[in-house]
């Protein structure tokens, strides 16, 4: 199973709504399928243009490594060589910080990932998890 465009759009819409509700800085959100391909992306007015790369890197690392951004960051702190090697394998596309949310279906299978950026990493996770939950999916942040 993979994530549908409808669910990806719901995640994005609800993530952005949560960010506005909590007065976060302008957010950018990407949803990737289980193969790491972009299913949907939006960047709010006022968000810097480089945010796509950051959001994509957060989500890409999550889906390719099978662990959320917080676990990637912990691994980088303990074994920097591992994340450096993974960034070599994935052409520098991994951004190992919170805001990369692994998506699972009801049976626990990985179906994609969400990358949120624009505010603090912790706030990015709060907004992203609101979007994931609104879409009826399980997120691992």
Describe how the helices and strands are arranged:
Blueprint: H1 5-21, E1 28-33, E2 38-43, H2 51-65, H3 69-78, H4 80-89, E3 100-104, E4 110-117, H5 121-134, E5 138-140
Antiparallel strand pairs: 1-2, 1-4, 3-4, 3-5
Helix pairs in contact: 1-5, 3-4
Structure, briefly:
The protein is α+β, with helices and mostly antiparallel strands and 141 residues long. The chain contains 5 helices and 5 strands. The chain is globular.
Number of helices: 5
Largest sheet: 5 strands, antiparallel
Beta fraction: 15-25%
Radius of gyration (CA) equals: 14 Å
The order of strands across the largest sheet is 2-1-4-3-5
Percentage of residues assigned to helices: 40-55%
| SSE ordering | HEEHHHEEHE
Number of strands: 5
Distance between the termini: 20 Å
Average pLDDT score: 96
Structural class: alpha+beta
Low-confidence stretches: none
Shape verdict = globular
Walkthrough of the structure:
With 141 residues, this protein is an alpha+beta fold. 47% of the residues lie in helices and 20% in strands. The chain has five helices and five strands, in the order αββαααββαβ. A five-stranded antiparallel β-sheet has the order 2-1-4-3-5. A hairpin with a 4-residue loop joins β1 and β2. The chain starts with a helix and ends with a strand. The model has no long low-confidence stretch (mean pLDDT 96).
């Amino acid at each position: 199973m993979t994530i549908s465009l409808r669910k990806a759009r719901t995640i994005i819409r609800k993530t952005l709504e949560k960010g506005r509700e909590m007065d976060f800085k302008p957010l950018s959100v990407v949803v990737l399928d289980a193969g790491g391909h972009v299913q949907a992306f939006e960047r709010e007015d006022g968000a810097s243009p480089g945010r796509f790369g950051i959001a994509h890197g957060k989500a890409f690392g999550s889906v390719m490594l099978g662990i959320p951004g917080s676990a990637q960051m912990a691994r980088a702190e303990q074994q920097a060589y591992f994340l450096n090697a993974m960034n070599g394998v994935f052409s520098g596309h991994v951004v190992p910080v919170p805001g990369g949310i692994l998506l699972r279906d009801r049976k626990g299978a990985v179906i994609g990932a969400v990358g949120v950026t624009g505010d603090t990493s912790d706030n990015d996770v709060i907004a992203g998890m609101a979007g994931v939950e609104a879409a009826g999916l399980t997120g691992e942040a």
